[in-house]
Amino acid sequence: MGTISAREVVVVTGMGGMGIAIARRLGPGRVLVLAEVFDDALDRVAEQLRGEGHDVHAVQTDVSDVQSVRALVATADSLGALRAVVHTAGLSPVQASPERIVAVDIMGTAYVLDEFGKIAQNGSVAVCIASMAGTMTPLPPELERAFATTPASKLASLPALDPANLDPSAAYGIAKRANQVRVEAASVEWGARGGRTVSISPGIISTPMGQSELAGPSGEVMLNMIAASGAKRIGAPDDIAAAVAFLVSHDASFITGTDLLVDGGTVAGLRYAASPAM
């Protein structure tokens, strides 16, 4: 669709706490396309942001369905030039089965990168929300390469993603590591069109999803992780929105094919806080 001189379009998938904060941060002066699987949440957020002066187009989207993602891409392409797609839609271990985590968190990210890559142009950026769980889930190099490069149509058939062999926590960690490496690989194709791909791995963020995790079986462990971090606080959705805004900006034009860990130092704290003094 045209050139970047056309109206800039920003697409945000997932209308949770991070998605709303990101939409609000990136929306002014741009066409804002919101995507969410639940109509009630989508309509509520779209109406709220319209009331704040944003130009909003709401598209009900199931990111685990490639045809639904293609419809979202077609809508975005009809409205102007793709400036950014920020993919926040995902499920956590307390929300879903391993099967659904694979379908939404892994397949959804693959579909978004592949399908939006077809309309990427000079200046377009894809930002995919992964997780510090991916940073803490080391995988064999051959498996990472499979997650990064297997065609989306065959990705769910990888033996490592058989839901029968995964519990929700394992599925989530693997999914988020898969997101990180998928973004790395996608940077080559997007780069050929003048675009960039990056992922952000948030730590523990005070969103409805984050609060449900804190209230779940792993809540005490998560509080201890926060205490061990350098920041010693839970993250806010605006912390992630600020990082996204930088990565989408021209100041980040040399940053692509990589992950930004935005966790308040949680991973570092877990790795080094208990280390003996040098």
Question: For the largest beta sheet, what order do the strands appear in spatially?
Answer: 3-2-1-4-5-6-7
H/E element string? EHEHEHEHEHHHHEHHHEH
How would you classify the helix and strand content by structural class? alpha/beta
Uncertain spans = none
Explain this structure to me?
The structure is a single chain. This protein has helices at 17-26, 39-51, 66-79, 98-117, 132-135, 141-149, 152-155, 168-192, 208-214, 219-228, 237-248, 266-272; strands spanning 8-13, 31-36, 55-60, 81-87, 125-129, 196-202, 258-262. With 278 residues, it is α/β, with parallel strands linked by helices. The chain has one domain (8-206, 235-263): 3-Layer(aba) Sandwich (Rossmann fold). Helix 1 crosses helix 11 (237-248), helix 3 packs parallel to helix 4 (98-117) and helix 4 packs parallel to helix 8 (168-192). 46% of the residues are buried. The mean pLDDT is 93.
